Amino acid sequence: MRNEASVVGAAPNVDLRGKRDVEDEADRRRHRIYEVTCLSCDHSERIHVEPGEDRFVSHDETNAAHVVEYVEVSR
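RESULT FIELD:
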């Protein structure tokens, strides 16, 4: 009897664990500058983030329906 179930792309040499969200120790201690752009309206600003800090702009926090993009532009 033939098995009807199949898996696409499941070769034995493929790493299926996915990308790790672990930064190097040096990366966690650096300053970051992000260009923040709202894709739902024309709001944009540049923010400076201190090492070890997670920061969101107030526009993102007060407008939950908006799509806000954070792009790192400098270290």
